[in-house]
Amino acid sequence: MSRTSNHADGDIVQDFLSVADLLEEPQLAQLYAYLVRERETTVQDVMDDLELAQRTAYSYVNRLVDAGVVNVTDDEQPRRYAVREIDLTVTTAAGDREYTITPALIDAVGRRETDADIDIYIDRHGVAGLVTALTYAVARERGEVTHRLMAEDLDISPLAAEMILQALRPVVHEHYDIEEAGEELNELNDDDAADDT
Questions:
Q1: Which pTM does this prediction carry?
Q2: Separation of first and last alpha carbons in the chain
Q3: Which one, of 34, 112, 25, 36, lies nearest residue 63 by Cα?
Q4: Dist CA 104 CA 147 (whole Å)
Q5: Coil/strand/helix, residue 80
Q6: Between 20 and 30 A from 77 (CA), which of 22, 90, 118, 145?
Q7: Interatomic CA distance for residues 64 and 82, integer angstroms
């Protein structure tokens, strides 16, 4: 499902609407992220692992199937489901910015219900701001930037930058191949974070 939104294609419109649902509803985003991790699963697994009621689990899985982001892989009981990986690039109406919607972003949105820092960041900066923060989080984990540089670039406080970077760290390690950053930069980040508190 890797496409850009510039094409005048009905499938792309459907893809965008499906992704919009995931970005608007953290529970659906959380389920999608779970399916990405598990590769293939049953509704019973969803119920057990995400602690969802049977009716809720079936409702969410069926909504993702109807949206076209999850496929039924085995019609035998129990049915098995697998995710279609999303990689959709959206261009703003002004054409001045592009955002790529990936499973990592959807995972981050899904965590907003359990992570107050992500929830607050989305409230203040929107999903587009979260995309930018996720880009910085990947760069930080690769040892390319510090939270102070992010704060300066985005005109936010160093503490706000550190908080969102820490909140996104598990998402980054779940979805990206991160080589161990140099110990010096890790120590510098730790020292800078201590100075901000």
A1: 0.70
A2: 42
A3: 25
A4: 20
A5: strand
A6: 22
A7: 10
Return d(Cα 197, Cα 193) in angstroms, integer: 7
Q: How many helices (H) and strands (E) does the chain have?
A: 9, 6
Quick one: which of 77, 73, 65, 78 has its CA closest to 32?
65
User: Would you tell me the crossing angle of helices 10-24 and 54-67 to the nearest 10 degrees?
Assistant: 150
Q: Which 3 state secondary structure label does DSSP give 138? A: helix
3-state secondary structure of 52: coil
> For residues 147-174, b (16+ Cβ closer than 10 Å) or e, as one string?
bbbbbeebebebebbbbbbbbbeebbee
Helix-strand-coil split of the chain, %, nearest 5: 65, 10, 25
